[in-house]
Each structure stands twice: as C-alpha cells, then as structure tokens.
User: What shape does this take?
Amino acid sequence: MIKIRNISKTFGEKMVLDGIDAEFEKGKTNLIIGSSGTGKSVLLKCIVGLIMPDKGNVFYDLRNFTEADKEMKTEIRREIGMLFQGGALFDSKNVEENVMFPLNILTKLPHSEKLHRVNDCLKRVGLENINKKRISEISGGMKKRVGIARAIVNNPNYLFCDEPNSGLDPQTSILIDELIHEITHELNITTIVVTHDMNSVMGIGEKIIFLYQGHKLWEGHHEEITNSGVPELDDFVFANKVMSKMRHT
Amino acid sequence: MRGFGKYMIFLSSLFVRRESFSTYYKLVIDECIQIGVNSAFLFILVSTFIGAVTTVQTAFNMVNPLIPRFVISQVVREMTVLELAPTVMALIYAGKIGSSMAGGLGTMRITEQIDALEVMGINSSSYLVLPKIIASMMMYPMLVILSGVCSLIGGYLVGTFIHIVTPTEFVDGLRFNFNPTEISVALIKAVVFAFLISSISSFKGYFTKGGALEVGIATTEAVTTSVIAILLMDYFLVNIIL
Assistant: This one.
C-alpha cells in the first residue's frame, strides 16, 4: 500500500498540488485522473521521488519515503517498476538489453537466468522473437509493452504508469490497460496509473482519484464515477461523446 | 557563481551511490571506444595537415640565410608539443566529443531515460557521466600523443617532399635542444582539458530542460563553455608549470 499525506507542490507562483491525501491499495489498479495540467504527472513524480514535494509525505508500506535517507530511498526505488509516457527505453540498447537492464544492475543472477526472465516477461506482454530488434524498429504500442516488460522484470512491489495509452490506437490502448490490470492482480502489487482516458477509467479503475486544479475532488470506484455529484468530475467524464450519449440514454 | 556551484555539486554527486566496479568497467570500455577509437581518424587527419602547413609557413617566414634549416622542424616540434597537440586538438575534441556528450545526455533527459534510471534506484549522474569522464581522461592523452606524432610526420613528409628541409635536417631539428619536460606538460594539459570538456559537456546535457530546441542550445553552450575553460586553463597551466 502507498499512502500520501498532505502533498503540496508549487512551481514559481503556481500551486500545482495543494494538500493531497490518498491511499493506493495493494492488488488494485489505482487511477489518478483529471484534465491536462491538473497535476497528475507531478503527483506521480512526487510519489516516485523524481520531484520533491514542498510539503507532505509519501509512505511505501509504512516506510516514509520523503524523509528517508539516500540508502533507504534507493532500497525502496529498487522495488518500483515504472512505465513512462514515452516508454523511456534506452535507444542505445536493443529490446532484450532494455528489459534485462534492471536485472544487470540490481541483481547478480547468472546470464541464463536473466535471459529466461526477460523472455518470460516479453512473452507475458505478448512480444516474442523481437529480442534483438532496436528500439527505433518497433511500433509505439510495442514500445509501451517493452516498457511494461522492463518495469515488471525485477518483480516490483509497486508499479507506476504515466499515461500508458497516450498516442495509441483504441484497440492497443485496451490491450495495454488489460495487461496492466492483469499484472497487478497476478503479482499482487500496488499499481498507480495516471490517465485521462475514459476507456481506462471505466475498464480498469478499481480505485480512482480525481484531481482538479491541484486539489483532490473525488475518490471512488469506476461504477460510482457517473453518480459522483461533483460537477467538475461530471464535466470531465461526460466530455467524451460516448459517455455523454450513455448519460442521455 | 550559481552555475559554478551547481557544477561542483554535480561533480560531487558522481561519487555517491555508485554501482559495482564491473558495471563501470564495461561502460568505461564502451566510452573509450566511442571517444578514442572513433575520434582517431579525425585527429590523424587534422594533425597531419596542421603539421604540414606549420612546416611550410615556418619555412616561408625563415628568410634569414644565417638561420640553419633544421630550426624549421624545431619550431614545428615546439608548436606541436606545447600547443597544437594538447590545446588546439582540445578545441576540436570539444566540438566532436563534447557536443556528442551534451546532445546524448540532453536527449536522454527529455525522453525521460534519465528519470527511468533514477526510478530504478540508480544514481544516473554517476552511472552516465563518471564513465565518460574517466574514459575521456584516459583516451584524450593518447589522442594527443597520436596527434603530436602525426603532426611531425606531416611536417616531415611535406618538408622533405617540397625540399624545404632534408630528412636529416628535419630529424636533427626535432632532436636539437629537446626538453622532455614539454611532453609532461602536454600530457598534464591533456588530462586537465579532457576532464573539463567531458564534465562541462555532461553537466550541460544532464540538466537540459524542454525539448529538441533546448538540446541544441545545451550542445552549443557545452562547446562554448568548454572552449573558454580550455583557453583559460591553458593560460594558467602554462604559467604554473613552465
């Protein structure tokens, strides 16, 4: 479980996050949603420590990450897998080397064992026989899947995904969402996904947090989202034409 | 001053939370190949031509018949060992390797590859930059030696081919009044310049913010700052050592 308490962040004069409290449960796909510029990605970066919050604390299973020393932070980070918006795969390495990278750095496993795990992860994300392909030779959807394989290869306890289906076609988006959801349940890990895609929200959102102008306005399950009674959330949810039609029927 | 302070903090961050020796060993070897082997051709080409041109221009200015011809190669030797090989080639090195380091790290920054390393619990500055600095400090002195040798060979070939000096005069000039300390000075300069170029370029690239335009700006700043640092440090080193 990940808890965040009173997270605030300001950039210059602009308050991007204002006193956010939330709990992200283990074995569930937790979603942070909101329109562009509401602070979703900043919140995610505060949680993983890429941005230091001005105020507040992040707890990874009761371990205070924000106030931890460098060694403790490194230890916690080695339990994290993250899928970045653009994949963040290393251009200088091929698919196999990218997925094997965390194992090379963080473990002392023999090469055969590492290769076995890499192949297992690639198979899990539906990519086989592309081990030697360069990153520039694969499609956007494949990059996301390689990113997921790299994120889970070290059996993380926490998985973070920053807009996993941005720039993908609807079918591939659904595949990626389902993959993240299945992996979360299979490995019983705490997963946090940042998205503004309503398909993801309705498809995999077991716990949803809605951010609006740096504030948390609502949290709940995807089945409750259409009856939230929060006008800002309604505007966000029903901005989608399909959702809007559903509302009127 | 703020930038200098940030640069010093950046340098100190290279030595904390390091990875295993074997990790760095592989990275340093890769960087050595990129920096050294892949730059050798350019260094050979530029040095040979500069050596040849220096010989011709020195001969052109030696109008006094009382000055022996072997002085031409002596002048070429002094210029090559003290300035051309370590300093002028450092400017070329900053353009080729410095820009490549800044551009590479800048691109890694804007495509979140550096963030990915940090999230994995890796000290990204140490992992990415330390091998570049070590490899640079190992390879650049070798490139300077190569450059010096090629420059003298270029001078010899052109000087004897167009009959400015005889082969014996050229070799005599190289050996006349030779002070081996100059080689040490050149190598000290090489190590210092290699450190400056690799660390400044990495610093500029590592802290790139924005997109492709900013990567271009960081690359330009890396080369400009490196060149200024080389020229200033050249002056200080010459004053201190010689």
User: Anything to note?
Assistant: The two ends of chain B are 30 Å apart (CA to CA). The CA atoms of residues 36 and 142 of chain B lie 8 Å apart.
